[in-house]
C-alpha cells in the first residue's frame, strides 16, 4: 500500500515526536484504518492515543497546543492537544476514556503493530482491536470506517 506523501511525512514526524514515550501508544481513527489498507479520504487529522505523561511530554517536545475540549457525552481525555506543524494536524489524547453503561472506561488494546516510517516506528492496534474500537464509538463515521476495513 502506498501511503500518500502528506500522511507519510506526518507519520515520520509523529515517530520522531514520540521517541521519548515510556508507555505504549497507538495511532487510532481514520489514519489507523488507512494504515490497515482501507481507502479513507479525506484524512483531516491523525489521532494518537497515549498515556497522560507521554501525551504531556509529546505536546511539550513538539510545541503542540494543549486544548480544553468541549465536554462530550462519549469521550474524555486527561490531556488533549493539537499539533499543527505536520502536513496533517495531529490530535493527541492522553488518558483517553469512552462512556459505557458502567461509566467511563479507559481505552486499551491487546495488540500493538509496529510500522517502520522514515525516522522511526509508529504503532497501530491490530485489526480486531481497531474493529472493536470503531464499534464501541458507534458514530456514523466510525461505522463507515468499520465498513471500509471489513470490505
TrEMBL record:
Domain of life: Bacteria
Protein name, as recorded: Nucleotidyltransferase family protein
InterPro entries: NT_sf
Organism expressing this protein natively: Sphingomonas floccifaciens
